[in-house]
Amino acid sequence: MKIQAVMLTVLMLGGCGTVQTVVLSDKASVDQLKTKKSYCGAVPRIYSGATYDFCMLHAEKPDDVDAFNYNNASLGLVVDAAVSGVLDTFLLPYTIYKQQADGSIVIN
């Protein structure tokens, strides 16, 4: 049972905004936001996970998705933004350093 819980946690964190922006490369984050046609121009590294999730919410709605599924996906992003906010708070020392060293993740 513990192994299943750990596997579920790992799978859920794979889509987490903090994991997307802190663990993965900048190019992967930029490509994902460009694919979703987000209107964000840059993502600051400080609280980058929560910002990434809000950029995903501020993307164009796909034409082939009905309103019910789109609202469910939006709710999932809001929950992920809350979890990302907590993880981003724990990672503040690292992300402050990365913001000073590398600057924001530019999308355009």
UniProtKB/TrEMBL annotation:
PROSITE patterns: PROKAR_LIPOPROTEIN (PS51257)
InterPro entries named among the record's database cross-references: DUF1375
Pfam family, one: DUF1375
Keywords for this protein: Lipoprotein
Highest taxon of source: Bacteria
Descriptive protein name: YceK/YidQ family lipoprotein
Organism of derivation: Pseudomonas jessenii
